[in-house]
Description:
Distance between the termini of chain B: 57 Å
Number of strands of chain A: 9
CATH topology of the largest domain in chain B: Rossmann fold
Bound molecules: thiamine diphosphate
Helix content of chain A: 25-40%
Number of helices of chain B: 13
Low-confidence stretches of chain A: none
Strand order of the largest sheet of chain A: 2-1-3-4-8-7-9
Structural class of chain B: alpha/beta
Low-confidence stretches of chain B: none
CATH superfamily of the largest domain in chain B: Thiamin diphosphate (ThDP)-binding fold, Pyr/PP domains
Number of helices of chain A: 10
CATH architecture of the largest domain in chain B: 3-Layer(aba) Sandwich
Mean pLDDT of chain B: 96
Mean pLDDT of chain A: 96
Helix content of chain B: 40-55%
Distance between the termini of chain A: 59 Å
CATH topology of chain A: Rossmann fold
Oligomer: heterodimer
Order of helices and strands of chain A: HHEEHEHHEEEHHEHEHHE
Largest interface: A-B, 36 and 40 residues
CATH class of the largest domain in chain B: Alpha Beta
Amino acid sequence: MSTIPIPTVEEIIAQGNLVYKRPDALADTWTHYCPGCTHGIIHRLIAEAIDELGLRERTILVAPVGCSVLMYHYFNVDAVEAAHGRAPAMATGLKRTQPDKIVFTYQGDGDLASIGAAEILHAANRGEKFTVFFINNAVYGMTSGQMAPTTLPGMVTTSSPTGRDVALHGYPMRMAEIIAGLPGACYVVRRSVHDARAIRQAKKAVLTAFKTQLAGLGLSMIEFLSSCPTNWHMLPPDALAWIRDTMIPYFPLGDFKVADGVEQV
Amino acid sequence: MARELWKGNEAIAEAAIRGGVEAFFGYPITPQTELLEYMAARLPELGRTFLQAESEVAAINMVYGAACGGVRAMTSSASPGISLMQEGLSYIAGSEVPIVLIDVMRGGPGLGNIQPSQGDYFQMTRSAGHGDYHPIVLAPATIQEAIDLMYEAFPLAEKYRTIVILAADGSLGQMMEPAEMPPARPLLTEAERPSWAVRGARGREKRIITSLFLKEEELEALNLRLQAKLKHIAETEQHWEEVATADAEYLLVAFGTVGRTCKTVVREARQQGIKVGLYRPITLWPFPGPRLRKLAEQVRGILVAEMNAGQMLEDVHLATLGRCPVRFYGRMGGVMILPDEILGALHDLIADQPADPAARRREP
Ligand SMILES: Cc1ncc(C[n+]2csc(CCOP(=O)(O)OP(=O)(O)O)c2C)c(N)n1
């Protein structure tokens, strides 16, 4: 009787069979994100795009205040940590003085749409040549689930205990649509990461956003619909279904601005 | 280089350019605006970065971003704008990024007015934001001194990886007088960029610039290091000017343009036979206290004059610790102090002192 040798993991990799690995731009470490949170997926998409475009050694990441405040530990790129909402201003300073670098911000909805609303609008209006990844999870995650400018009408949060009352707090802000209205913004889309198809489409958008920056065009921004099972008080699969069934109807996926020149990139 | 007639705000801007500033981000506010306008015209001509920000909040964070790359970046503003920059200044201090800031002070509180004031002494010297730190604060009395201090501000900020604030007031920003510009310093080359600068991790480990230290021991360690650095700065960077102190029986203490006014007072008082001298702090932080303490042992009384309600006065008290009587004369709301007013206050101080100096020491 002859035995069939079982190859080791190293032998499989050596044969050139490796089809999926950690991108170089992602650090070999664990993250602090809650189970089922989609920050991790979005990090990975960004890191893959950085690898594929060969940008790792010239990228500078501007981290926000929010759940992703520690993301500079998770990426293998140079990084700075901004004050709450000020990432677009810091990115402006960086990109204006180092135009050959690839600069991106990564901001939550409290960070970008509330406390940093002025900074993002003016960066977009000036057509700053950096990329913005905007993570819309409909709540303030880090401070444990308060109402954000993106919280849906009627949605219960720790600071809207009876549900968001639009008469009191106004309607959720559709930031992608607002920013797309500014001439300086060149590529503005909304994507989701709630299923494999959405993730593939999101990945394409990340590549386009970086290519827009590489081409020296104006601001590129992707709004991601992202889950927060912890503060939504849902199981991870339910949270993904909630994105699909409840968030997308209010925050439709799509391309809101694809300026001349972006198609070609 | 020849002496030329310069307006204060423009002179500071030109000195910054010759000192090697690479990027300026600012927002208009009187009485500082000419500084921004000068930068707007000159920097693009030189191929350097100028950007008018949407607010002072954004301006200081743009400076922060640029400076994280080891780029010589600065902003300028006046009092209400400096208030808005406090958040950014605290982050900059926490991550030890060198930047330069000009405050052309105006009357407060609130919108106040656009007249000269020294009402930002506390907000500049006491930390300029939350947490335990002090920027280095330089207070010129003349346009020439403003030029000279501005020219050295970047090397100073870089030496200690700290914030340097040039504290001018509205009169210094707006007035004109002859001054000489230093020659232009060459710009930093790529090789001269600091070893902590964030410029892309090409062939090296990534770098992170942050003011976040979640572990209490780590944040305490950062604070202890900052405090040790501040102590070193306090010991090595005290600067002041003395006028006629050798035989002085009375001492005026004033900074900035009021210090300059006091020179006239010293001259006039001496003509009246009063042996008075002037102590003019040039660094407001670190406050040059030890020398003032010595002088307090020599003189019969100190008169502090400021265009505020008595802010540096607290540092004078802390430095002199009751060694001699300390009086204060101040004007607020943008009212400038005239030499006669200070002279009058000096006469009052003298009139209140016992004739016998020994009697003073017996006072409780
Ligand atoms: C000036 C300031 N205000 C408030 C806070 C407290 N804070 C930290 S994170 C956060 C909310 C972040 O929410 P979001 O931007 O939606 O990001 P998420 O945590 O959901 O990823 C707040 C209010 C702060 N750090 N600084």
